[in-house]
Amino acid sequence: MTNATHLSGVDAPERSGQKSVEDLSQGQLFRLRFRKHKLAMLGLYFIIGAFLMAGFAEFLAPHDPGKVNATYQYAPPQMPRLMDADGNFHLRPFVYPMERSFDIATGTRTWTFDTDTHLPLTLFGKSDSYDFWGLITWDRHLFGTAEGVWYPLGTDRLGRDTLSRIMHGARVSLTVGMLGVAISLVLGVLIGGVAGYFGGWVDNGVQRLTEVAIAIPSLPLWMALSAALPTWWSPITVYFAITLILSAIGWTGMAREVRGRFLALREEEFVMAARLSNCSQWRIITRHMVPSVYSHIIASASLAIPAMILAETALSFLGIGLRAPVISWGVLMQEAQNIHSVALYPWLLLPGVFVILTVLAFNFVGDGLRDAADPHNHHV
Amino acid sequence: MLTFTLTRLMNMAIVLFIVAVFTFIIIQLPPGDYLTTMMARMAEGGNIDHARLDALRLRFGLDDPWHVQFLSWFTNMLRGDFGWSFEWGQPVSQLVWDRLGMTLALSVSSLALIWLIAIPVGVYSAVRQYSAGDYAAQVLGYIGLATPNFMLALVLMWFSFDVLGFSVGGLFSPEYRDAPWSWGKVLDFLTRIWIPIVVISTAGTAGLIRVMRANMLDELRKPYVETARAKGLSWAQLLPRYPLRLALNPFVSTIGWILPTLISGEAIVSVVLNLPTAGPLLLRALMSQDMYLAGSIIMLLSVLVVIGTVISDVLLAWLDPRIRYD
Amino acid sequence: MNMRTAAFCGALAVGLAITLPAHANNEAPGLAAMVADGSLPQLEERLPSNPFVVDPLDGVGEYGGTWRFGDARGADEAYLNFVAYEGITRLTQDGSVVPNLVQSIDASADATAYTLNLREGMRWSDGAPLTADDFMFWYESVLTDTRITPTPPDWISVDGQVGVFTSDDPYSVTITFSQPNALFQLQAARWNAVDVPMPAHYLSRYHIDHVDRADLDARIAEADLSTWTELWELRQNALLNPDRPVLRPWVLVEPFGDGLDRVAYERNPYYWKVDTDGNQLPYIDRVEIQLVQDAQVLNLMALDGAFDWQLKDVAPLDQLSMFRENEERGSYRMIEVSSPVSAFAAYYFNLSHGDAFLNELFHQADFRKAMSHAIDRQTIVELVHFGITSPRQPSPFENTPFYDENLTNAAITFDPQLASTMLDELGLTERNANGIRLRPDGEPIRLVIQAPAGRQNRIDASEQVARYWSEVGIQTTVSVQSRELHQERRLARDFDVWLWSALGGTTNHVLFDPGTYLPYSMDTNSTWAMDYAEWRVSGGQSGREPEGDMRRAMELFDEVLVSGDPDRQAALMREIIAIAADNVWVLGIAPRPPEFAVANTALRNIPDAFGDSLEAPGVFHPESWYFSQ
Known about the structure:
B: mainly alpha, two-stranded antiparallel ribbon, 1% strand, C: alpha+beta, 25 strands
């Protein structure tokens, strides 16, 4: 079955044509088909990047995401410069320090650059110390300035660094999606599988249950469940509760998918054959049926993740999701959900851009996976 | 056909009963009740009027065991009495119908807009599969799906105010609110209503483009299409005759699953834009533990969705007889 | 009679009979038309013989127009009441108290009895006369009827005993308290004292003691209710029932629920106030309150000129520049409204703590002072107020007779070194590896600041306070919770440090609720000493008996209550405040920054600056506001 030469070649099917495809395993075929989907590959790279960012946020972020700066509130972004105010070129990128003034009569805040001082950028420089994954204490950051402060994407109302907060927020937002989908995956496969395999009244009962879950519009249901969370719970408990709440609905889609596949598979010859050779039911489900719907499940899951990421932001916006001091994209967007952010401090909406890109990426990957799993069926 | 419809209707009744049980459990979950909310408000005002609190507690049987409260809520609901809203001091039924109507109107208008976009774009994407236009349509659709509704609503609201110079907030300007319908009132309404409809639609369009495109691709692969093309029929002549009609059949079933999405989208957009729909009322009711109001809204929204699903199922069975025996 | 009251009466000639000039335009055109077609009595018959005379700020105005404003909070009764409320007495812009509904008040020398002299010929909004019966009805059938009022409100009670109402003449009512109550007139001026009197001719129909049981049952059935108290509750609520006669300048015409997005009021044809030319007020025909769900929309609407006078929820500091920029587009101007809040964030250490060690610790004045020195107030002010407020403890403002520099500046210097030394001297010398001080049992000291949701700058400030305290070795975290839970914790005395704001900045607020300066009542400002407040309120029956300075402060305040002389009251209060300066009962950061109201440029008779945001605009005679053409 295995063919080592084809495994390494991305464009193998095109080059070698139909003949060699016959030699490939299910999994290899799947991967090859997936790689043909350019948008899906792009999405995959983005997601890998986002997860790396979330994983190494402490090191990648230039600042401590919770550190306030009383003289740098609502500071606009500043790009690194090579040319100074006098038009001279500098090989080493630098930024200017900024100074704020507030006029109560007009309510305006003005920023001036102190062009006499250059703050050269540094790589692996020392800055705020952090406990990396709670294991080691370190104070090196990928980039920053040796002295003074630099906020590449500006700051929020308390002078906290937008970029660092986005990076740390990715950690919560991405894992909420992953964890939520993992839970709904288990629930969905279990419930859908049982219903699809046994059929009859079991199927009927599960069908009703899914209908109930689908009948209650998800956002009002999430709202009701989140509003019920005790406000004295610690942020971490709320985080898990929100994840559970999100997956409480997520499993229905998964269960439907699995059930449909199982109903169809039940009639297939290989299942019949397994049954005739006295395989146990458990064995039939786990060894024969689940593997054949594997790819579909992965595809559905990857489409469910972005929905959960969006749901997290929606709950935070309504004030019943995660709350500060937890940093998630939803919390950041909630803090920016006011007209002065749109009108005066648009950089505060950047977490929203990250949400959009991530959701896009997951959808492309999901599409790619689905096409790869079942190239002839384009139905949802 | 009749048996099929009846079975679906019976299922619907069972589902709705379970929904009612769930709803009641959910609204009972938060610790405390509306009186806790009220007490806190009084305390902020400086005076706690224990008199009113005790009177209300007794009056609404808030100390009764929960199954007694559920049964009275459920049986009353069957009679059309949805209970009392503590916060608004009115029967729930007086509060919800107008707003539910608004929710339905917004959802249906958004659905219309979605179809208006999704059907032609889906057909185009299928006919020109893997073309630049196909990709562009899909990416744009996904961007709509990926943008959080509340952020889009806020940005559009500011855009409408600052760039277009329109007024915002509510469905009408105060001067037109009570005026009879006129050209000016229609224009005023349109300058406000486009934002929620566009925002709600963005979330659903991508999904429907995908369905339409897939349905269409299935039809286009069939031999009769190839035969027709071989005989020299242009796409413009061919498409409306068979492929489009056949592809639209399964499309009908999308009402069932897009309705919950629209209602969810509507709820959040209305909070941002201050629209008099069910969503903001529900949020407020949940926050202040106005339990009968919250429960009734969840219940009624669910009824909307279930009815939508049943309609789409029955329509589908009527269009495609095979499904009746599924 | 209170001295300040008397002075004001002289200045504005309130209560003096005036001759109505023969102008044809001394009532609104709409009402004049109704008089002409006979559907309304003549103006002279509608006004009392001696109406309340308002001296308009800019001058006599013109009739007409609609005052639009917005509300982002829903059925918030308090806010609606702020707009135009009519109590027995009222506050004036300069902070003094004058008779309002009544023509005059005669107080007994020992401040136990108050005789209210009503205005003859004054009428409810439906035309029925207002008499002593309406006061007696409220007293006999509402205040003392435990089916409707199980617990009487604080403002009419002394030591848990309500004042007794008596009347022997249709135009006079006497209220007698069991103890001296020198602050009665002040308390009666607040918006939460507006329910008295009640229209007996209308409401007695819904009260079981005044009506035939069968009639009442029919009414209950008609309204689809089950008990008479339910029906009562609905009918007496002037915010929900348009038929309920009122004494306010505007009468409810569109209650909550008719249109969920708007509440509307129209002029009261029997309103009993006139301007200096004898024109019946109010000038403005109609009031519309737009109910908005989201503060962002409310602000955009305000920018667009959708509101004629709006204070609540608009123009926060973050958005100020947008409001300045759009002044022309929205045809509004910005009016500065100062706040009576002397500490936007106040920290109440729990002197009723269940934990013996913490309870003992919090009782030490040096502990509280050390914690105060640990806070860098200037940085917090820069952070949350853009540096426009100045650090201070909760204390009376400079322009009040109670100002005390020692309290204002008590322990407000930022000196973590001193704070550390003071904590060391209190015996908290042992620390763990993280530098956190240890209790005698070896556990680290951990405090939680209980913060209510909302008012983001208060929470932001508290995060910083927690950080400063942790830096001097008292590990502190902030827990943000719903306002409901926050209040429950307060009432249960289940907290270490409770976050709120502190009033007590302006003269009246010092007297209304001096809770920041002594354990005065069980209300929010005395949260730091609930056990002691309970002792005071229960007359020593329960709670914990205070000692030393706290005892002394309570005794001084009892003297304030007996004294009718404002100078003596002020001297006593100053002494109480000096005690507070020694003890620093409550820690504050800075006052609340000024708020801004958005006012239509055509609106007249409004002051250019408002003194007290909590009582605005009610105290500024909105009935005398008008739109210039």
